[in-house]
Design brief:
The protein is α/β, with parallel strands linked by helices. It is built from eleven helices and 17 strands.
Length: 344
C-alpha cells in the first residue's frame, strides 16, 4: 500500500510499504480521512517529538475491512474512528486506571511507534468497541470522524476545569485545538469565551462559531478588560505552544483561577512563581484522550453542538501529503488540513 513516511525535516515522501494484517485481536481499516495535527508539525518542521521512518497520522476515520477472530461487536463495513493511544495495561499509570498517561504509550501507539493513518490502510491493535474503536453514527461523516480525536483533546482539557454557566474563559491560540476548546466551553454554558490569535483567518472562523475574538497583536489584557467591563477571567487555556504565552495566561487569570496548558512546547516556558503564589493560581496540563472523551466528542458532533466544517480550510489527497504539511504550517492561511484517500 501507499503511505507517507517521515524521512527527515520537511521530507515526507509517499512510499510503498507492506499492507497491515489484523492479528486475532486487531482490525484493519481502509483510511478515508486523516487530519494534519499541529503536533505532527514538530517533527516535520523541526525534527523533534518524532522518529525518522515513522508513518504519522493519528486523527483518522475509515471503514473496517478486516476483523480478527477474537474481536467482538465490530464487523467488516463499519464506519469507525479510533484512539491512537494504546496503553500497555501493565505500567504504574495503567494500573492506576489512567492509561492515557501510560509510561510507554509513545512506543506502541498508532503514529507513535506503530504505523499511523497517512496511508491507505491502518491497523488498530487489541480492538475493543467503545474503548479504542468508536463507531460513527450515520449523521457523522468520515471528515467529521477524523476530527473526533482533536475534539476529544479539547473535551479532555475542558473536563479538568469543571465548566459551568457563569464562568468566563480565554483561549490563547485558535488552531484546531483552541477552536474545539472554545466550542466545548460554549456547549457547557461558559460565556463569554474569548479567543485570541494573530491570524485574521482563524479569528474569522472563531466568529462563525460564536467565539468572541481579540487580535493577538493588540494590547490583549486591555482588550479583554474592555470586553468584560471589569469582569474577571476564571480559566485561560494556552493552546499556542509559544512559551511566553504561558506567563501571559497567568497574568490574565483571576486570583484562584486556572491556567490550562494544552500545547507542546519546543522550548522551556518560564513562569513567575511569585505571581502563582500571590494569586493562589493553579497551573496544570492536559494530555491525551480517554474513551469517554471520544464518546462525548462524537455526541457533540452528532448533535451539532460542535461544528467541524468551518475548520477545514484545505483538502489534499494522500499523494500530496508533503503539500498538506506545508499548508498546515501557514497559520495565516490554514486551520485544519484534511488528507483523504477516498470519498469523505
Amino acid at each position: 500500500m501507499r503511505a507517507g513516511v517521515f524521512r527527515g525535516v520537511r521530507q515526507m515522501p509517499i512510499e510503498q510499504v507492506p499492507d497491515p494484517v489484523a492479528g486475532e485481536a486487531d482490525i484493519v481499516l481502509n483510511v478515508r480521512n486523516c487530519g494534519v495535527c499541529g503536533s505532527d508539525l514538530h517533527p516535520y518542521a523541526q525534527g523533534v517529538f518524532g522518529d525518522v521512518g515513522q508513518i504519522m497520522g493519528h486523527e483518522f476515520s475509515g471503514e473496517v475491512i478486516e476483523v480478527g477472530r477474537r474481536v467482538t461487536g465490530i464487523t467488516v463495513g463499519d464506519r469507525v474512528t479510533g484512539l491512537p493511544i494504546q496503553p500497555c495495561g501493565r505500567c504504574r499509570r495503567c494500573r492506576e486506571s489512567i492509561g492515557h498517561l501510560c509510561e510507554v504509550w509513545n512506543t506502541r501507539s498508532i503514529a507513535f511507534g506503530l504505523p499511523g493513518a497517512f496511508a491507505e490502510r491502518v491497523r488498530i491493535p487489541d480492538a475493543v468497541l467503545g474503548q479504542n474503536v468508536h463507531r460513527l453514527p450515520d449523521t457523522v461523516s468520515f471528515e467529521a470522524g477524523a476530527l473526533v480525536e482533536p475534539l476529544a483533546v479539547a473535551v479532555h482539557a475542558v473536563r479538568h476545569t469543571e465548566p459551568r454557566p457563569g464562568q468566563v474563559a480565554v483561549v490563547l491560540g485558535l488552531g484546531t485545538i483552541g477552536l474545539h476548546i472554545a466550542q466545548v466551553l460554549l456547549a457547557a454554558g461558559v460565556a463569554p469565551v474569548i479567543g485570541v490569535d494573530l491570524s485574521a483567518l482563524r479569528r474569522q472562523v472563531a466568529q462563525q462559531l460564536g467565539i468572541t475574538v481579540v487580535d493577538g497583536a493588540a494590547d490583549v489584557p486591555a482588550a479583554i478588560a474592555e470586553l468584560l467591563d471589569d469582569g474577571e477571567v476564571d480559566v485561560v487555556f494556552e493552546a499556542t505552544g509559544a512559551p511566553a504565552l504561558l506567563q501571559r495566561a497567568l497574568e490574565l487569570v483571576r486570583p484562584r483561577g486556572l491556567v490550562m496548558a494544552v500545547a507542546l512546547y519546543e522550548q522551556p516556558a518560564q513562569l513567575n512563581a511569585t505571581v502563582v503564589v500571590h494569586k493562589e493560581a493553579t497551573v496544570r496540563g492536559s494530555a491525551m484522550v480517554t474513551p469517554e472523551d471520544f464518546r462525548d466528542s462524537i455526541e457533540l458532533l452528532a448533535t451539532g453542538k460542535a461544528r467541524y466544517e468551518p475548520l477545514i480550510t484545505h483538502r489534499k489527497p494522500l499523494d500530496e501529503l508533503a503539500e498538506a504539511f506545508e499548508a498546515q504550517l501557514d497559520a495565516d492561511k490554514s486551520v485544519k488540513v484534511m488528507v483523504t484517500t477516498g470519498d469523505a
